[in-house]
C-alpha cells in the first residue's frame, strides 16, 4: 500500500490575439496535485488486490492439480498399453506353437491341411495384434513423456509413478476444493470492490 505520487503540471497560456507578444508576457500556471483516498477506499483497493493475488494462486494450484491428475491418467494408460502388448505377445507365442504343432501333424498325415490354414489365419491375426499393441504402447508412452517435455519415455513403467519435484512442490493437502476456494475468494473480492 504505497500512496500515489504527487503530480506537477505546467501550462503556458496567451489569451490575446497579439502575435507580437513574447512567451514572457504569457500567463504561466504551475500546479501540484496529490490524490487522497476517502476513508476505507484504500483498504478496499488493497483487499481487492490481495484477493486477486489469492485467486491467481488458487488458479495456479488448480492447474497444477489438473496436471497431476492428467499425469496419473496417462501413466495408467501407458501401463495398461504395456500389459496389453504383453498379452498380445503371449497370444502370438501360443498361436505360433499351435501352428508349429499342427504343421507337424499335417506332415504326419493325422490332420487335414485345412486345419493348418486356420492356424495360419490365427497366427497372422496374433501378429497384427502385436503390431497394433506396439503402436498403442508407443503412443501412450509418448503422451506421458510429453507431459514432462520429452519426446520419448526413457524410464521404465514398473512400480509406482514418481512425479517430478517441480510438479509436487507447494501442493500441500488443502481443506477445500480449489473451485470452491476460488469462488469464496471471488465473492470476497467483489464485496471489497463494492466498497470502492
Radius of gyration: 37 Å
What's the pLDDT, averaged over the residues?
A: 82
* Quaternary state of the chains: single chain
Q: For the largest beta sheet, what order do the strands appear in spatially?
A: 1-2
The CA-CA distance between the termini, in Å, is 15 Å
Q: SSE order in H/E notation?
A: EEHHHH
The percentage of residues in β strands lies in 5-15%
Strand tally, please?
2
| Category from helices, strands and their pairing | mainly alpha
Total helices: the number is: 4
Q: Low-confidence segments, ≥5 residues, pLDDT <50?
A: none
Helix proportion range = 55-70%
- Overall geometry comes to elongated
Largest sheet: 2 strands, antiparallel
Structure report:
- The protein has 196 residues and is mainly α.
- 63% of the residues lie in helices and 7% in strands.
- A two-stranded antiparallel ribbon has the order 1-2.
- The longest helix is centred in the middle third of the chain and has 68 residues.
Compact overview of the structure:
This protein is mainly α.
Secondary structure layout:
Layout: E1 7-13, E2 27-33, H1 41-108, H2 113-146, H3 165-168, H4 178-194
Antiparallel strand pairs: 1-2
Helix pairs in contact: 1-2, 1-4
Q: What labels would you give this structure?
A:
196 residues; 2 strands; 7% strand; mainly alpha; elongated
Amino acid at each position: 500500500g504505497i500512496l500515489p505520487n504527487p503530480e506537477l503540471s505546467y501550462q503556458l497560456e496567451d489569451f490575446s490575439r497579439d502575435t507580437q507578444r513574447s512567451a514572457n508576457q504569457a500567463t504561466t500556471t504551475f500546479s501540484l496535485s496529490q490524490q487522497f483516498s476517502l476513508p476505507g477506499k484504500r483498504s478496499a483497493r488493497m483487499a481487492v488486490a490481495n484477493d486477486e493475488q489469492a485467486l491467481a494462486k488458487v488458479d495456479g494450484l488448480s492447474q497444477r492439480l489438473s496436471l497431476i491428475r492428467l499425469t496419473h491418467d496417462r501413466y495408467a494408460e501407458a501401463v495398461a498399453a504395456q500389459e496389453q502388448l504383453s498379452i498380445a505377445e503371449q497370444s502370438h507365442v501360443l498361436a505360433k506353437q499351435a501352428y508349429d504343432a499342427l504343421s507337424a501333424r499335417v506332415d504326419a498325415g493325422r490332420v487335414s491341411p485345412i486345419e493348418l490354414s486356420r492356424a495360419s489365419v490365427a497366427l497372422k491375426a496374433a501378429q497384427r495384434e502385436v503390431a497394433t499393441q506396439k503402436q498403442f504402447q508407443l503412443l501412450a508412452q509418448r503422451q506421458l513423456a510429453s507431459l514432462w517435455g520429452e519426446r520419448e519415455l526413457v524410464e521404465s513403467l514398473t512400480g509406482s509413478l514418481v512425479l517430478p519435484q517441480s510438479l509436487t512442490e507447494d501442493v500441500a493437502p488443502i481443506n477445500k476444493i480449489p473451485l470452491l476456494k476460488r469462488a469464496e475468494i471471488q465473492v470476497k473480492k467483489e464485496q471489497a470492490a463494492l466498497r470502492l
